[in-house]
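Running log. JK asked me to keep both predictions on one page so they can be read side by side. First protein, sequence followed by its tokens:
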Amino acid sequence: SITAQSPNKNMDIAANNLKIGVESNASGDFMDINETINLNNIKVNSRDYGPISYKVILKHLHIPSLIALQKDMDAAKALACSNPAASAEGIKTALTKNGATLLAKIPEIVVESVKAKFPEGEASLTGKVSIPTFVASDLNAEQGYMGLMQKISAEGKLIVPEAVAKYFASLSSPRSAAD
């Protein structure tokens, strides 16, 4: 059970029975990572939500590329306090070099399921994303990233009850002084 209260006392949050799971399966130079999150109940102020579940699979990840990317990212982040410009450049270089190698192996993100029960009804999401025709030059910032965006292959299904959509839309709309 997790309980938090914001300093301005406008929001109280309590979560119960949170379970997080990560499982990886490797075959040769590639691996899949299965991530799951299950939350029995979350209470925000006086509203109860839940259960909430999440299962996402990162498929066909090239292990040597991941290791090189992590190593270079860690080195760049270590410079963040002493030399922010060098840190930013190191992150850019790591993503361009090792990220390109990783993406060239055509990994895929699969959202197997995201489900959340709201007082107004249940919402769900499924889908998948990949870049099946990626080439390293797609990350050339001089050309811009619009070419890369056009290569993304994505499909998904989102189900949101109308009452849930209206509730969240009301949260982002300007409130009158009387509220």
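And the second, directly underneath as requested:
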Amino acid sequence: PLGASDFGPIASAVGTIVLTFGLLLLYDKQARLQGIQAQTQRNQERLMEQQFQPFLTGEVGFMNVTSVTFAIQNSGNGPAFDVSAERTVAGQSRSWEIPRLPAGEKHSFPIVVDGDDWLLTTGEIEEFLDDHNAGTEIQYSIECKDRFDEPLEFSGTVDFGVLIQRSNADEIWETDPLE
């Protein structure tokens, strides 16, 4: 039989078990909350990195009425650092480097360099491509770093033939407009 003297240790043991179980529940809840907070922080860091990340693309465009260039444009939200680009036209590769390309800006250079001559007009470039039995596609690859010093790579192909066709269409429109 249980006596009055046994009631104290039994109550103490039951109280200890209840408190231990309560502490385990609190610890589990705290661990889950810390996991959620850690995931939220990782997501915020990822979003901050994307918010200030450059996105570089190649394009062909008119420099003025008669001249065209190949340009690398940063359409991202952050500047690109230590930018190095290489493009291939008619089997010839050319590369260039610039220290920085701010967001929303572009850097242009000649599509074709024949020896020391820069070929800038669509006619000159079209003639060069014909002489070298080359297509009108320009392949490019770009490497840079973002503001967090993370390396990024971009590559693609643009078609110079689109500008040739647009130039020919403009000439037809000027000489034979619709009435």
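Observation for JK regarding the second prediction: Residues 4-51 form the longest helix (48 residues).
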